Amino acid sequence: MKRHAPSAERNREPLLPVLREVLPAQGTVLELASGTGQHAVFFARALPGLTWQPTDVDPTALASIEAWRQEEGLPNLRAPLALDARAEPWPVERADAIVAINLVHISPWEACQGLLRGAGRVLAPGAPLVLYGAYFIEGETPAPSNVAFDASLRERDPSWGVRELGAVTAEARRHGLERERVIEMPSNNLTVVFRARAG
């Protein structure tokens, strides 16, 4: 049941210092599209002041997350929840932060819209939404690796693809989220931090 993704092993170490900086010291972090569960275990262990709530839409992923959770036995790692970002309502009404790693490009645009709409509902003012993945940036020549990655994603599913950061930012604003920071990461990825607006 327990699955393993090499990409999760690669990106977790660069992500950790960013999360230490932008996440609250305490509270509940809602992770969307937790995949294999490797990130949930790693970050829950590294950030013991936070309660980590993993989710996924795929039953196979949920089983893998639970297998990792059972093996590790971390007190601050909750059992995974089935959550489709497009659904309303979500099974979680409030969170102190939301993290989504490699969700925006490996899903339809409607999932990104649902993620941002849901984040606007469940995050308190000032709470962060942290997105990690590949993006195209308007006015900049894209990295050849991201162009190839986009093509490979669209071959797998025409509704998938590397998104324009400006389009994601504009959609976020519609749901009360303001972009705070864009952090360059290894392999031409970005970590994008949004904050929920007051009111």
From TrEMBL:
<keyword id="KW-0489">Methyltransferase</keyword>
<dbReference type="InterPro" id="IPR029063">
    <property type="entry name" value="SAM-dependent_MTases_sf"/>
</dbReference>
<dbReference type="Pfam" id="PF06080">
    <property type="entry name" value="DUF938"/>
</dbReference>
<dbReference type="GO" id="GO:0008168">
    <property type="term" value="F:methyltransferase activity"/>
</dbReference>
<dbReference type="InterPro" id="IPR010342">
    <property type="entry name" value="DUF938"/>
</dbReference>
<keyword id="KW-0808">Transferase</keyword>
<protein>
    <submittedName>
        <fullName>SAM-dependent methyltransferase</fullName>
    </submittedName>
</protein>
<dbReference type="GO" id="GO:0032259">
    <property type="term" value="P:methylation"/>
</dbReference>
